[in-house]
C-alpha cells in the first residue's frame, strides 16, 4: 500500500541564502502518528508549510494521497487539516460559526451533525455560541483543531499544538489525538515537549538545520540510542568503593547508600550478573534494585550533540538509505 504522504528530495532555500530544508525524503503511512523533533529553526514548520501548500519548495516533490501538491493541489489540500502554532481566530465570531466557515473554505457542503460531533469530541459543544475572544488559550487551541477537522481530512498536522497549555489540558488533548488516530486520521506532530512525542508517537523524526537526521519507530529509537541505569540500594552506606572493585562504570552516590551502573541493554553481556556477583564477593548487602531507561529527551540531546560534533555527518550518514524507506 502506497504511503499517504511521500516526500522526495525536498529543499527550500531563500533568496538571502538561508537553507531551511536540505534534501529531505520521507514516507508517512496512513494511520500513524509521526513526531518531528528539532530545535527552533530546524525546519519543522517549513516542512509542514510546504506540504500544506503555504510555502513553495525550491526543489523536490510531495504527494498526499497520490496527489502532487504542485500539479493537483486542490485534491491534495482537501485531504489535509492544519493546526498552526499561532492562535488566529476572528474574536467576535462564535465557535460553531468559525468551524462552519472553515469547512466552507474547502468547498464542503454544510454538515451540522459532523460539526456537532467535532465540537463534542473536543469538549467545545457547550461553548458553541460563545465568541472566541471569551475563551481561554487552551480552549482556543481546541477551536483550531476543530477548524482543522471541519472538512474530514485524512491527514492532520499539529504544529506545537500544546504550547502554553497546562498539563491537565495537554493530556486531554493527547487523548483526542489518540482517538483521531483510532478513527484512521494520520497525524504529523511537531513539539518541543519531548514527553509528548514519547507518549503518543509511533515514529520519531529528528530534524536539525534543515536535514532529516533520522526516522525511527519510537521503541527502536529508544533501544538503539537509549541506555539503562541500574541503581543498587545498599543495606549500609559506604564511604568509598571497596579496594579491588572489579568493574568499571560504577559510581557511588553522594550519601554512599547506592551504586549506579550505566549499561547498554542491547549488549550480549550487560555486566549486571558480574556486578551482583561482585556485591556477593564483597559481602555487601542489597536493600533494593531498580532500573531506569534513558528518556527521549536524553536520546534527542545526545543525537544533536553527536551530529554537531561530527559536523553534521555521522548521524546523517547513518540514515541516508533509510529516509526514503522510513516506514
Automatic annotation (TrEMBL):
Species of origin: Paracoccus alkenifer
CDD domains to which the protein is assigned, alphabetical: ABC_DR_subfamily_A (cd03230)
SMART domains: AAA
Domain ABC transporter span(s) in chain numbering: 5-234
Listed GO MF terms: ATP binding; ATP hydrolysis activity
Record keywords: ATP-binding, Nucleotide-binding, Transport
Listed PANTHER family: ABC TRANSPORTER ATP-BINDING PROTEIN
Record's protein name: ABC-2 type transport system ATP-binding protein
Pfam families in UniProt: ABC_tran
